Amino acid sequence: TKYVVHGGDWGSIIGQLLTAMYPEQVIGLHITMNRFSTGARAILQTAIGTVLPGLVYKSKKEETFMHPIGGLSTRMYKQMAYFHAQSVMGDSIGYGMTDSRTLR
Fold this sequence. Notes:
The protein is mainly α. The protein is about 60% helix and about 10% strand.
């Protein structure tokens, strides 16, 4: 029999444990509270795997599983340069407009 597991609060922890203990029976996991591993090995693996995935992951499938959004954040950062400029220097236009003769 195959199962889909859902958990929130303590159920998130139990759901993750069930998924790890019985991977053949659990076909899906949905949790509403993520639990992060804070062990030094897990933190190091995640950090290195983000930059140099070939050193950490055995296959492209494993890399995609661990970092599902992949290069999306890099693409979003490059495409949101205007938003970034406005969030950092948004008042520049306002100050320029106060000195403009066309608005007087």
